Amino acid sequence: MVEDAEMQFVVEEPEVGSRLDVFLVRHLPGLGRAGARELLKSRGVRVDGHCLPRGTQLRLGQSVEILGRVPARRFSPAPAPELALAVVHEEAQFVVVDKPAGMPCHPLRPDETGTLVAALLARYPEIAQLGYARREAGLVHRLDIGTSGLVVCARTAHAFEQLTRSLRAGRWDKRYQAVVSGHPPVGARYTWPLAADPKDPTRISVADSDHAGAWQAETEVLAVKPAGSCAWVEVRASRARRHQVRVHLAHAGHALVGDTLYGGLEDRLAHHALHASALRFPHPTHGAPVDLEAPLSSPLIDLLRRLRS
Question: Considering the entire predicted model, what is its pTM?
Answer without folding.
Answer: 0.78
